[in-house]
């Protein structure tokens, strides 16, 4: 019958098993949404606990980070995860990993260099001029890539400078994570390895806080990664070299250290490619492309540093020279001139221990990656280059033992850790394929240890957590009193005034106040104004400099006589001021300006006093002064 036949057909179709639907995308979205919300709540709770001085901010912070990043690592390393889902997971990871810094200061600059970059971007928006001198970080104006971008976004969208900067920085952070994945994909041709490489790179000590701050490296490091992507693609297809040249130029005009790091990275890749070509007796377009791009980076960087930014060498030299002197001194005085790690740190013991464990994990992982790469018959030359770049991580870590070298060591890790990430990722995939569940549990444990340890080694708690104002801190120096004094001077006397100040007052007066502070140097020792004993005249040569360069005001912070700066600096790193755990000034040295001819007090708020210079009478001793 015609009615029963179709029924029989339908019965057979319903009993036949159909294709199983993949619900992994829905499970992934649901799990990461819940984990992300829980993680964000815990991060906020950690900040509030630190700010109020009670609770367990470290435990809350890492619980919030791991509750999201560990599921991300699972979904990224899962063999059945599709390409689109992996892309979404990496974007979610990059966005969430920006959250700790965003929550740290969502409304304005906080870190020392952020004030300089905020000011520089604002000056471009107000005056429309690039390359303006910056009184906070003197080489900032010579590298306008970040500031021009932020000012453009602010002008086009109507956003404030700070919110335009956040838009640029979040975009750069996401692109950096994706750039590492794309570079790994170019080398290993495996999406799973690429995703794991991106997550491993996120373990470096600069990832969560330093390379998310409003600073030129935060944008330049992304340009560096994508320049390497363009270079690797150009090695396979030399016709694509134009994009690499464009990205090299963008990197050079954005940040000096990243440009130098780019040259070093490209040179290592080029040397490995050259050795391989010599062994195979091949000299073709690949070799010429590698050398051409490396020389282009060298020429552009040299031109920029010599003709556009000649102050850069003098800016960097004290850090490197002093670090080498301190490193040599460690062997002469049994390490007494060295730096004690975590000295007076409030970080919990387990965080300090993981900082050392993370280095051991990196060393073991690199040894395993080298062995794994050695067993491959056909070795990708870029992979060998990345092995060499990753190996540079360990000698740079030794400089962390010197006070001046610590900052440079931390900054180098953002570059060398790329090599670690790219060569360790295929080893992690091999372990997952061989031992599956056991390897996954072990790798997730190592992932958590290295994430905690590297962050602890790279950033002090005061950078990571809010808290009460601390004199002499690069993150907690901003107080309502100093901000009010800076606002008063700008509103009553105008902006772009040349003023003498200490490091921390100068930071606020030079950014929010819109002034041009000087905080002293070997050639312009303005700290001698403060060091001069009561009743003694100021050094005549210094008065002549101040007068000739039209410095009109002096800012005095009385806390210099009552407190020791947290970072051990009052003005600048080479200051001739004793640092023995006691204040470097007496109260008399700082209040002598009240009775000194030529300094007229125009503002006083308790801790902060502002004086106007009167060079017609300055330098004459006060009546009844000591002779």
TrEMBL record:
Transmembrane segments: 24-46, 58-77, 83-103, 164-185, 217-235, 241-274, 286-307, 355-373, 382-401, 413-432, 439-459
UniProt region (Disordered), positions on chain: 1-22
InterPro entries: LipidA_mod_glycosyltrf_83
Major subcellular site: membrane
Keyword set, alphabetical order: Cell membrane, Glycosyltransferase, Membrane, Transferase, Transmembrane, Transmembrane helix
Record has Isomerase as a keyword: no
Entry annotated with the keyword Isomerase: no
Record-given protein name: Transmembrane protein
